[in-house]
Design a protein that fits this description.
The chain is an alpha/beta fold and 352 residues long. It has 2 domains: 2-64, Phospho-2-dehydro-3-deoxyheptonate aldolase, domain 1 (Alpha-Beta Plaits); 84-335, Alpha-Beta Barrel (TIM Barrel), CATH 3.20.20.70. 32% of the residues lie in helices and 16% in strands. The protein contains 11 helices and 14 strands. It has helices at residues 11-23, 49-52, 109-122, 146-159, 173-179, 193-200, 216-228, 256-263, 272-276, 279-292, 318-331, and strands at 2-5, 27-32, 37-42, 60-64, 84-85, 91-92, 98-102, 126-128, 163-166, 182-185, 206-209, 234-238, 268-270, 296-300. β2 (27-32) and β3 form a beta hairpin. The longest helix is centred in the N-terminal third of the chain and has 14 residues, at 109-122.
Length: 352
Amino acid sequence: MIIVMKTKAKEEQVEGVIKKIQELGYRPHVSRGVERVIIGAVGDERHRTRLQALDSMPGVDSVIPILKPYKLASRDFKAENTLVPIDDGPVVGGKQFVVMAGPCSVESMDQLRETARAVKEAGASVLRGGAFKPRTSPYSFQGLEKEGLEMLAEVRKETGLPVVTEIMTIGDLDLVCQYADILQIGARNVQNYPLLRKVGTTRKPVLLKRGMMVTVEELLMAAEYILMGGNQNVILCERGIRTFETATRNTLDISAIPVIKEKSHLPVLADPSHSCGYWQYVHALSLAALAAGADGLLVEVHSRPQEALCDGGQSLKPEKFHRLMDALRNLAPAVGRDLSPQVRGSNARAIA
């Protein structure tokens, strides 16, 4: 259920409704729009008739059931687009088209530093890099773990770029939160519900990647686990799904971008690198994602992809990434977007 407050509802009336929702055994989630406040009541749907009586409370305009299985992620709950601010970085979900770029894996300080400087010079506003790597083969490079996080922190100080990196287990959450500006939930963990619940208790922005065999509705249900924990800073990512096609690693579901934008208020990125698996197609897929309404990209860039320990074949060299950013800048105004950096706050940082 959502409780829509009247346009000029007083704050004490809003608080009164929140208190009543809690007394009824539901969890309130407040969305403050430009003109009015909407309160979501999440809990056992079998007893939702008890919530209908809230329409008689002072300041309440209406009580409306949300029929979709995902409640807090739905446009019914929040009509305006959610804006996710990144510390000392961009706001995801607004006019700025946000590009996050860097290597699949942190391999060495020289590799990370060289790539980070290159992507920043080209116009990326967030540095991506994996310290923990979920690999299909147990014999593949698994990441540098804490050492990789420390390298990301050092390069972040040098470049001022916020960092997005993957969190794989609940046990690593506190460690990763010390270093990461954005917590990435990878495709293989999108339905790891205990992890999603735990991440929902943080207030770190979360980049939630769609799984290879996960529907749009299942992706939004995964986001619901995070939102229910109170963390509203969720960014979705379309990264390709598994189909019968073998010409590419996966199939980038371009149609998912406008579908998600219609069904949900959450921002959506596209990952052209993992979706196709070949650097040759990243440029075209990136432009397609921008045209389809994506709020940004997650692109793999490596200073020497031929030496990469992970996914070198899908990584752009710095000069190719520069050309991609130029093409995106040319296209962006035609679809109402802007690639100009919009950095918030200071670049000074301290690691706890």
